[in-house]
Amino acid sequence: MTINNERLQKVIAQSGITSRRKAEQLIVDGRVKVNGKVIKKLGTKVNKNDRIEVDHVPITKEELVYYLLYKPRRFISSVKDDRGRKTVTELVPNTDKRVFPIGRLDYDTSGLILLTNDGELAQLLMHPSHQIDKVYVAKIKGIPSKAVLTLFKKGILSKGEKLKATQVKLLSANKQKNTSVIEITLHEGKNRQVRRMFEEIGFPVLKLKRERYSFLDLTGLQPGDYRELTRLEIQKLRDDAMKKN
Ligand code: URA
What we know:
Elements: E1 6-7, H1 8-14, H2 20-28, E2 32-34, E3 37-38, E4 45-46, E5 52-54, E6 57-58, E7 66-71, E8 100-101, E9 110-116, H3 119-126, E10 134-141, H4 146-154, E11 156-158, E12 161-163, E13 167-174, E14 179-186, H5 193-200, E15 205-213, E16 216-217, E17 226-228, H6 231-243
Parallel strand pairs: 9-15
Antiparallel strand pairs: 1-4, 2-3, 2-5, 5-6, 7-9, 7-17, 8-9, 10-14, 10-15, 11-12, 13-14, 15-16
Helix pairs in contact: 1-2
The protein binds uracil.
């Protein structure tokens, strides 16, 4: 990472240790030093030769990386798993960078997930008010009527939590097998949201895949494949998250 006259909180966030908001708190709390001096003023500018420490530990100005991964089923969306299951970080290049997934997909859900070491962009994209489109395709047991599908947009109550979709479309139905395929778009990202919404109305999800995240899709990738995002895509993601704030 080349830093040149950048705000201190931004540089801390970009080192991957925390979000920009939390970096601001670290500064205010007097936990940040620049060239050996505690700096409590937000917005202080730093350059590439400045030595920045958080809690006496120098931050590493790690190069930022961004991957788009086609997560296969039976991988866990975290950096480590106590139960020894395979993790999504095992599917991207093994470097010394601390790459983590932006949000999560369930163990049994496949599809598009982003991985990065850019804590700031991750926070920005995951914030619920930023309304990033997440498009899923679900194969479900049963064939819901149009009226049932409209419930998704009104919001479905699950364990005291209202879960909402922004769009729902029936893509196909198989009357013999009594199954259907539904496309559902969310802005929220609550735990097991798609599965819970269908379960609540009596249509269990048999298979779930995330097809799209913002403007990004899985074109050209097979399960387990990844690619790096282009500079333009990274900029566009950042713009998308900012403008919907
Ligand atoms: N909704 C789910 O139920 N599971 C996922 O993995 C993502 C969204």
